[in-house]
Amino acid sequence: MAKQTSDEKMRIIPGEAVGIVAAQSIGEPGTQMTMRTFHYAGVAEQVPTGLPRLIEIVDARRTPKKPMMDVSLDKDHAKDEKKASIVADEIEEITLVKISSIEEDFSKKLIHIKIDKRLLSDERLDIEEIRKKIKATGAERVELNGTVFTVKPKGDTLRSIRRVTNKIKELRLKGTKGISRSVVLKDKNELFVRTGGSNMIEVMNWPGVDSSRCYTNDIKEIEKVLGIEAARNAIIREVNQVLDMQNLDVDIRHIMLLADAMCMDGEVKSVGRHGLSGEKAGILARAAFEETIKHLITAAVKGEVDQLIGVTENIIIGQIVPLGTGLVNLKMKRLDKLIKAKSE
Question: Furthest-apart CA pair in the chain: how many Å?
Fold first, then answer.
């Protein structure tokens, strides 16, 4: 017998139940994972890891619980700590509520905003620019006395005062929307910025940032900005990172198969009833997972036919599953009939 090459050894036998093997290989170690959270230096308080993060990824959540970015800097900024700090400060979103205390005076129908002098100088903000931005929120009159603003909203109702207050609290003075915190960290003799919050498209266009090496843990945002192939790679990286952090050794090909299944239609889909499981080709396969009655009634109304191409459907009706040896179809001709046919 000829010796198999390493390439031949790696090949999967036709009919192998790769989906079931992958599900088992990821699911079984997944039950071993602790529920602990991981502390990332300086930025997000606690970033979910382990099972909560794994669920977050396969559910294809619109935004992760704690979005964060690793922002790589260009050659000029990556070696200079002062320049890197300036980029980090400029990226961080500064809202008015961060540098001031805001109080409503409902009896006089006024809003008082007291600016912190130290934070004003630290963030290098111009008080006159702040006044203009407050005026644009729907204020009739804005008076400045030292570092205290007195705002008279256009309406006299309590609702209109509260509406203006909420707009003032969300007023962005500088930085990138969605980036709540930023800190400079070092990795392999190179500085980079880690942020709490994510806004990939704006940060990638920021001066001093190397746009080709920016990364976010928000998979949906990667799909939107960089496309489905980048999202697929992000799923592989994120799942692998979760398992590695728990010291679980899972073959990368199982994770790749999961990522392929989630991205095969050109968009990131969840693995639940609103995604892959709810869109199976077979009616019985969909009904066997969740929402049984709904799927059966819909199929009956539309007059759908189940072609019995999957595993679940064939198990339900008691047929051989089209996997492994069940894929092979053999026809047998009786020898006595062949001899008789030849003699005639």
Answer: 117
Tell me the per-residue pLDDT of 99-152, one tens digit each, with 9 for 90 and over. Answer: 887 888 777 778 888 887 777 777 777 777 777 777 777 777 777 777 787 778
Domain boundaries 94-174, corresponding CATH code: 3.30.1360
Question: Which ranges in the chain are annotated with CATH 1.10.1790?
Answer: 15-64+219-263
Q: In terms of Cα–Cα distance, which of 253, 230, 227 is closest to 240?
A: 253
How many residues would you count in the chain? 344
Q: Please tell me the CATH code under which domain 280-327 is placed.
A: 1.10.150.390
Tokens 């079984």, residue located? 28
Q: Tell me the pLDDT tens digit for each residue of 84-104.
A: 888 888 888 888 887 887 888
The whole-angstrom distance between residue 139's C-alpha and the CA centroid of its chain comes to: 38
Q: In what order do the strands lie in the sheet with 139-145?
A: 100-105, 110-115, 148-153, 139-145
pTM metric for this prediction: 0.79
Say which residues have a Cβ less than 8 Å from residue 205's Cβ, sequence separation at least 6: 211
Q: Is the dihedral of CA 298, 302, 305, 311 positive or negative?
A: negative
> What topology is assigned to 15-64+219-263 in CATH?
PTS-regulatory domain, PRD (1.10.1790)
